[in-house]
Structures are given as C-alpha cells and as structure tokens.
Amino acid sequence: MQAVEEVMDRVSERLVALHAARWLPVLHRWLSQYRGLYDVIAVDSESPESQIIALLEQMVAPVDDGHLAARLARLDFLTWRARLEKQPWKPLEVPFQQFWNEGVAIWQSDREYPEPTETERWLLACLERVERPA
Questions:
Q1: pTM for this prediction
Q2: What is the pLDDT of residue 44?
Q3: Runs of H (alpha helix) within 1-132
C-alpha cells in the first residue's frame, strides 16, 4: 500500500490534469474528517485517498463540479459508521480522531453516511468557500 502522502500527490497531479486543482483543499479538508478510521478497522480495503484517485483516474477534463461532488459522495469509505453508546459519529461535523476512543463500535453499512446529497452539498459549500474566501 502506498503512503497517504504519495497518493495525495497523485490526487493533486490528477486534479491539475482535470483542470480541477481548486478541489485539492476541499479534499484535504474532507479527508481530515476520516483520518484514523482505517487505522482502527481490521479490513483490507482501499483507503479513502486511494478510492479518490481511482475515481479521478476515470474522469476526463473538464470536470463539472456537481458531477465530481456526486461521484465523491458515493465512494465506499463513506459506508463506515461509528457509534459511542447512543451517540453516532457525524463525519461532516466531527473528525474521526476526535470522536475515537475505546468502546466505539465501528461497522460497515450498505449505504453511505451522511446521505450522498448532504455530502455533495457540504463538498460544494467547501469549494465555494475556497473560491470566495471571506
């Protein structure tokens, strides 16, 4: 398995090739919410970063932002859930590393969480903030 830094370098290169480099800070922000998840699950699965590069390698320039957000919001790593007692992990609000502690239950669902449309809106809102800083 490649180091995360190497995969993110490939993501960056691919975004440039797709004329979508503006997405890089958005993807960094989004992935930071999931950092640590794949360190605690005992599954031989592709990392979120690897899933993103695989998706980007299927795309051709120019990339439509809405289409990219929709495809990203349906990646397999979004099916992982965590819960501490009755409190679910909300990945768009709380980074996994902040949520994680002993006793957290982790499982994989057959559906993405949050719902793909919510993730799409979040990604596009982040992109808008990148393009129009306050």
A1: 0.92
A2: 63
A3: 4-17, 24-32, 37-40, 48-58, 65-72, 96-99, 116-131
